[in-house]
Fold:
Amino acid sequence: MEDSSSIFDKLLEEDGIFENKEILRPSYTPNRLPHRSKQVNEIARILVPALKGETPSNILIYGKTGTGKTVAVKHVGRELEKKGEELNVDCSVIYLNCKVVDTQYRALAHIARHFDKDVPLTGWPTDQVYHELKDALDDRKKVATIMLDEIDRIIGKSGDDILYNLSRINSDLERSKVSIIGISNDLKFTEVLDPRIKSSLGEEDIIFPPYNADQLRDILQQRAERAIKEGAINSEVIPLCAAFAAQEHGDARRALDLLRVSGELAEKNGEEIRPEHVRKAQEKIELDRVLEVVRTLPTQSKVVLLAIVKHQECDRNTLTTGEVYEMYKKLARKIDIETLTQRRITDLISELDMLGIINAVVVSKGRYGRTKEISMNMSIDEIQNVLLTDYRLQNLKDYCPSTQTKL
Structure:
């Protein structure tokens, strides 16, 4: 049998097209941010008091996905810590993604652990975690900047208690100071906040506008120079990636993903990156996006979608809202979950249509009224495979609702 280590040796010896693929990931923070100097300088202006041992104003940063909010804030935070070291001023920057750290307990514990406090992931009263954090901050004189990315996620899930505690923490500290940077895609998320929190949190607002195609091209060009080997990319590729992403509300993340996935497709075939790879990458990313949406649907929506998939699998014809509802009821009973009303199921079908997962067209049945004819927009096998990763649906794998028998 061939030595398994030689398999990797051969792959490592292959001459790929990437110098450093990580540079094409949205999480990478470059040293220079094209077309964001105004916003970067504004954030730096607000945070510079930290270098004097003073409390910076809190900031709320808004903008659509892929407009450079996170990368700009991380860039300024990195420079702040670096300058603090030069001036012997303790400027600590803590970054939290509230999609992951999505409760008040987790957020406070995460910050406390940043300062070497041994706080468990669960189990303590929140007040105890808060006091541990306060003690950790006051352990030595410092100015801490806490960055809450996707701040609206934690508010939507856990309310504004976390912001209440963080906004009042300065009054409880003796030696240290805290400022907050909230980052959000939702311009209206502050409407649900207590007015006092809203007032203290939103001392400074910064808006990040979408990029246009020319700006996206500059961003991709800057990254590609270090990420992709010379001569491995066709001259039409970067303008095409930029044009596609500009249609998606100027989303730089989308542009970077397009270029990276195009490179992966080209590298697999031992070719330079060409426009046809970009078009294939566009299809792949869109499919991956929809599958991820399916993966995160609520259970009831998953059951409705699985009812549609099962009908297509067993019958292959378009179906009506009423037929979906009958199938949904059988599946819901099979896995012992609450059966919703037909009106609610109609709403869930409309939501699936809006997400682009299915196609639901209203048709007239004459004197019988109107209904929706429903069909799948995507491969039923791929959708079903994703749905069946949910343990609650796994025993429906071979179930055909139209016959009540095993397939």
